[in-house]
Write a structure and sequence with these properties.
Number of helices of chain A: 16
Mean pLDDT of chain B: 90
Mean pLDDT of chain A: 86
Organism (chain A): Caldiarchaeum subterraneum
Largest sheet of chain A: 6 strands, mixed
GO cellular component, one term (chain A): plasma membrane
Helix content of chain A: 25-40%
InterPro entries (chain A): AAA+_ATPase, ABC_carbohydrate_import_ATPase, ABC_transporter-like_ATP-bd, ABC_transporter-like_CS, P-loop_NTPase
Strand content of chain A: 25-35%
CATH topology of chain B: ABC transporter involved in vitamin B12 uptake, BtuC
Number of strands of chain A: 22
CATH topology of the largest domain in chain A: Rossmann fold
CATH architecture of chain B: Orthogonal Bundle
Low-confidence stretches of chain A: none
Strand order of the largest sheet of chain B: 1-2
Oligomer: heterodimer
Low-confidence stretches of chain B: none
Largest interface: A-B, 25 and 21 residues
CATH class of chain B: Mainly Alpha
Number of domains of chain B: 1
CATH class of the largest domain in chain A: Alpha Beta
CATH architecture of the largest domain in chain A: 3-Layer(aba) Sandwich
Order of helices and strands of chain B: HHHHHHEHEHHHHHHHH
Number of domains of chain A: 3
Keywords (chain A): ATP-binding, Cell membrane, Membrane, Nucleotide-binding, Repeat, Translocase, Transport
Protein name (chain A): ABC transporter ATP-binding protein
């Protein structure tokens, strides 16, 4: 390990975007045979730095050396020629084409007429070597997310890339697929490649990397050997301050029930029962956590309460008003905030930030006078929320689609938590996987907001896969399994093992919530 | 009334009428596969017909076809510049080019202008050629032996050179599209240009080439219409055939081979409508038969709207979407 060749050396890289200094005099190096984690929060500049290395962005200043030669990388074409391959977060594959077609696209040495017999044979060899099992003839749309990622890797390997960049590769993978990926990456590194793993997950850094470069706000704050650091230290470097691991709650829950769900039955999109006889109640100033493996009816339950899905049987009341099978506008009027699991479904990307912010309230004063919108008060409110929720946007008139993922999440939070029609604050917050895909600081921000709203008197329904999150925030926890509630635990009874067993369907204690 | 001779002549007519659609839609398949909708096809077709009319009288068939290809190439280049380089709305650009083609073709074939063009091209041209609205038809080439086969011989192997060219071209273009590197690059550019770019495919070049091929074949279809099918010049003689070809591309689901079937089907409908009227069938409602190609196209479109069908069939995902590197 001592005489490792330096594959990549990036020196003093600076990149400015309008209003943001994305990379500020960054140095980075990659050795042959190592898995190098590039750690940082969303917006820390990791992806920008790697996009520069891959030729997608031009740097404003700096030098890049690849395998001992100073290079100028103007496009991905140049990068590929230098043996650099990149697997993006959003797969760059053509779903209607076959695996083989996707892999050989743009390869001149394939000749004029493509010999698929020979190509498929070569591919199968590589596929088998890494322990994968995708058929080269399969159309890409037929593959799972993990398999698509393998196609992306194959694309790079087939081009003999020895510098591989992976941008948040595990965000779309199941735990098993993640393990498979890490094994393959290890194998690739051992064969003499250099692997760069862009991530914001500490456990991944610890599990798979040899070295780690930590970035914060466009700057490199540390380069360490993974063996020499602890997760806590990395977290501190990444966030710049110690993390909050518990929240203080100010007041006890009251006896008033805000949400009451009785014997609710809901079908999923395929018409199969998804929620089967769920009953639950949430009090004012209480966070009820719903634990469970994703796909056990949580999503359908929340959507039904939010008025987005019809119940086939049962009753839902909010503050005594029956809202069963009422449309979402009726539900919203009761003071319900809904934080959806998928941001994209709740943002109009081509409309402005301000327009997105008032999307639930534009019908009501002060934003409209019966017919005409009052742009001035809309803009003022937007300006105010942008500041309070720390949304990074050039102006309220900016297209929402131009914002980064974390900022869109803040935008939704701002809308849902402070612009509920006819209510000062939300009475009931439905939070479905509210921190999924967010970085550490944004996650903390969301959690704090939920607790704050609880303290102010809101009832909160929190659906999450993250047990730590459930345990940290909830006053009470119910566990869902196959559309049913299999157990309930009060805050004092919370134990990871108990919840874990219940999530697997082993019924214990509790009874109906 | 419906005997073998009648059937033979209807089917041969279907091939002759359908070849217009086949040539035009082959080019359009390439343009659309690369992600560019050439709504100016009608304009390129009529311009091709007009240019072939003028050049056939001045220099004969060979140069007429060459001139047609050149004008198609130029028109394709113009479309590519507007929609690929300037990234203008392809619908607007296409309609503008259709109107430009219709206007320009009327202009260059008007008596006075045509006379001047012809005299400047060929000062020794005879008086007759200056005045005629016609041009000599392309000769029928009977393929030895094959043309003797009953039915098929008359239908497929006793046609002019452009009919044969179109059929061979369909097979060649299918092979190129699906079995060569060029074809893979072309299809990829129409599916996901950003990705193709990242893999080292020159998106702009591919789109320019595809659109120029489309323009050349669009104009060639017009030349065939005039010197190969009905060699009597009438202003606006394409009468919507360019748009029918656009519909055919959808019906053929962007495959050069399926375009053959669709083209002859459309051609058959066109011919049948006349023939059936002659024998008194559907004389009152010829519109019904003329409607059929569109009806079939609408049904195809409906099927294509299903998401899973889209994936299976491969509607070019980036069709009409201009590409720009960020």
């Amino acid at each position: 390990m001592s005489e490792q060749e330096t594959l990549v050396e990036m020196h003093g890289i600076t990149k400015r975007f309008p209003g943001v200094l994305a990379n500020d005099n960054v140095n980075f190096s990659l050795l042959r045979g190592e898995v190098h984690a590039l750690l940082g929060e969303n917006g820390a500049g990791k992806t920008t730095l790697m996009n520069i290395l891959y030729g997608l962005y031009r740097m404003d200043a700096g030098e890049i050396w690849v395998k001992g030669r100073r290079v100028s990388i103007k496009s991905p074409k140049d990068a590929i020629k230098l043996g650099i391959g990149m697997v993006h977060q959003q797969f760059r594959l053509i779903p209607t084409h076959t695996v083989a077609e996707n892999i050989i696209l743009g390869l001149k040495e394939m000749g004029v007429i493509l010999n698929y017999g020979r190509i498929n044979k070569q591919l199968e060899e590589i596929i088998r070597f890494y322990g994968w099992s995708i058929p080269p003839n399969a159309k890409v749309w037929q593959l799972s997310a993990g398999e698509k990622q393998q196609v992306e890797l194959l694309k790079a390997l087939f081009r003999r890339a020895d510098i591989l960049i992976l941008d948040e590769p595990t965000s779309v993978l199941t735990p098993q697929e993640t393990l498979q990926l890490f094994n393959a990456l290890r194998k690739m590194a051992d064969e003499g490649r250099g692997i760069i793993l862009i991530t914001h997950k500490l456990d991944e850094v610890m599990r798979v990397s040899d070295r780690v470069t930590v970035m914060r706000r466009g700057k490199v704050v540390a380069v360490r050997k993974t063996l020499d650091v602890t997760p806590d230290e990395l977290a501190r470097l990444m966030v710049g301050k110690p993390l909050v691991t518990s929240f203080e709650r100010k007041q006890e829950s009251t006896a008033e029930y805000v949400l009451q769900v009785e014997n609710l039955h809901v079908l999923d999109d395929k018409g199969l029962p998804a929620v089967r006889g769920v009953s639950l109640r949430i009090k004012k100033r209480e966070i009820l956590g719903i634990a469970g493996v994703t796909g056990n009816g949580q999503q359908e339950l929340v959507e039904t309460i939010a008025g987005l899905r019809k119940a086939s049987a049962g009753r839902i009341t909010i503050d005594g008003h029956d809202v069963t099978n009422k449309n979402s506008a009726e539900v919203i009027k009761q003071g319900v905030a809904y934080i959806p699991p998928e941001i994209s479904k709740c943002i109009a990307f081509n409309m402005s930030v301000a327009e997105n912010l008032v999307m639930k309230t534009y019908k009501y004063p002060p934003f409209s006078s019966k017919i005409i919108l009052r742009w001035r008060s809309i803009k003022e409110k937007a300006q105010d929320l942008i500041q309070r929720f720390n949304i990074v946007t050039p102006s309220p008139n900016t297209r929402a689609g131009a914002l980064s993922g974390g900022n869109l999440q803040r935008l939704i939070l701002a809308r849902e938590l402070s612009l509920i029609p006819a209510h000062e604050r939300p009475k009931l917050i439905l939070a479905a996987y509210p921190t999924k895909g967010l970085d550490v600081a944004a996650t903390e921000f969301v959690r704090r907001l939920l607790v704050e709203n609880r303290d102010e008197g809101a009832a909160v329904l929190l659906v999450s896969e993250d047990l730590d999150e459930i345990m940290m925030l909830s006053d009470r926890v119910v566990v869902m399994y196959r559309g049913e509630i299999v157990g309930e635990l009060s805050r004092e009874q919370l134990e990871v093992e108990t919840i874990g067993l219940m999530m697997m369907g082993v019924k214990r204690g509790g009874g109906a919530a | 009334m419906v005997d073998l001779v009648w059937l033979e002549s209807v089917l041969a007519g279907a091939v002759q009428a359908g070849t217009v659609y086949l040539i035009a839609s082959l080019g359009e398949v390439y343009a659309e596969r690369s992600g560019v909708l050439n709504l100016g096809l009608e304009g390129m077709m009529i311009l091709g017909a007009a240019v072939s009319f003028i050049f056939a009288n001045a220099f004969g068939h060979g140069l007429a076809l060459l001139a047609t290809l050149l004008i198609g190439l130029l028109f394709g280049l113009l479309l590519a510049f507007l929609s690929v380089t300037l990234r203008l709305n392809q619908i607007v650009v296409g309609l503008a080019l259709t109107l430009l083609g219709l206007g320009l073709s009327g202009f260059i074939t008007s008596a006075e202008i045509r006379k001047r063009i012809l005299l400047s091209l060929n000062p020794e041209i005879n008086q007759q050629a200056l005045l005629t609205q016609q041009a000599p038809n392309l000769p029928i080439i009977k393929i030895p032996y094959l043309s003797d086969i009953p039915l098929v011989g008359k239908i497929l192997f006793s046609q002019n050179i452009l009919v044969y060219t179109a059929l061979i071209l369909a097979f060649v273009m299918w092979f190129v599209l699906f079995k060569t590197r060029f074809g893979l690059s072309l299809r990829s550019v129409g599916e996901n240009p950003a990705m193709a770019d990242a893999m080292g495919v020159n998106v702009y070049l591919m789109r320019y080439v595809a659109v120029m091929i489309g323009g050349m074949l669009g104009a060639l279809a017009g030349a065939y219409l005039f010197i190969g099918y009905q060699p009597f010049w009438v202003e606006g003689m394409t009468s919507g055939r360019g748009f029918i070809s656009l519909a055919l591309v959808i019906l053929a689901m962007w495959s050069p081979l399926r375009a053959i079937l669709g083209a002859f089907l459309f051609g058959g409908v066109e011919v049948l409508q006349f023939r059936l009227q002659l024998i008194g069938v559907g004389a009152q409602t010829p519109q019904f038969i003329l409607m059929l190609p569109y009806a079939v196209t609408i049904i195809t479109l409906t099927l294509l709207s299903v998401e899973s069908m889209k994936k299976r069939i491969g509607v070019p995902a980036a069709l009409t979407i201009p590409y720009s590197r960020e």
